[in-house]
């Protein structure tokens, strides 16, 4: 299989930003609400455990890409090392998760623009759509640069809010010890779906073709930065408000406690977070389509435009279509897609170690990372997550959760 995607050089900071930007969506602002019964410490426990296991699955993909001469996406790697059926399953997983997320970002951006500027929600989504789709058109290098600058702005906004929270007299750090570990299970499931950057490892590998040893370092740095941000925001919100006064979206609570400026800063952060996640997931979907169907998106601008339309237009219309049943269907399929995305890297790694086309052992996962215990832990964790998500959606879980 020949490459259909050209190599575009990424800086190390751009690769790290791609992971942070993809992971840190607006969902970070609802983490505190999800932990309102369990408390901060159970949330921190899951952030550490799930973060480590997700990083390991990403490093499996990193090793597989480094064992492959061609620059292939997840669906291409699956075809090469798992087989045709595995390739289609992986492609469906990427497609469903990406479409579901892009629908949410289209809808959420409209809500945020309305809150910030009082404009019509559809107009707000259109204004968000222009830079979101525009950067995808220009490709990997533009995504890397966009992620770097917008993620930096996003982190600055968060740090302003966090520092202001820590300096506010009503902040009480004893709140982080409140809660009940009995309610830790629902928190686990929210955290599982927060970490979502497995998709973009092959894109990063393409960007680091000039220095492939940077790939695993960038994965670890990106996931480490993600963890710090995911841990700091709930720490700030819970310390400020206490578990009994947490609002569903942290922007409201911050605005009430710190003043209207905090409301605007927090909503600005949320808008940036949606944009960076859109670039990460949309870009991955774009390149997976090109890879799966061998489309010359880097050489034929008409083909590129066609693929871009497939990626960006349906989520925009579905966000305002009122097809609630369709979105619900995406939820159920997305749950199983999440399981695929966690388990398939194990199979890809094993296949690449047997059939890898790049004989130079550039980098490989340490032995402990590929032990049966780790494999089983990943499979059990994500399968239980899927079972929980389905049971929750169908109303089979205790109301108190």
What does this structure look like?
With 401 residues, the chain is mainly α. The chain has one domain: Up-down Bundle (Amino acid/polyamine transporter I), CATH 1.20.1740.10. Helices cover 73% and strands 0% of the residues. The chain has 15 helices and no strands. Helix 1 packs across helix 7 and helix 8 packs across helix 15. The N and C termini lie far apart (49 Å).
- Low-pLDDT runs of 5+ residues are none
Strand content: under 5%
How large is the count of helical segments? 15
According to CATH, what is the topology? Answer: Amino acid/polyamine transporter I
Considering DSSP H and I runs of 4 or more, what fraction of the residues is helical? over 70%
What is the H/E string?
HHHHHHHHHHHHHHH
Which CATH class?
Mainly Alpha
Note the main sheet: none
Number of strands: 0
Indicate how many domains the architecture comprises.
1
> Which term fits the overall shape?
globular
Give the CATH architecture.
Up-down Bundle
- Average pLDDT, all residues: 90
Keywords: Amino-acid transport, Cell inner membrane, Cell membrane, Membrane, Transmembrane, Transmembrane helix, Transport
Subcellular location: Cell inner membrane
Transmembrane segments: 12-34, 40-61, 81-103, 123-140, 149-169, 181-197, 218-241, 261-281, 302-323, 329-349, 370-391
Organism: Campylobacter geochelonis
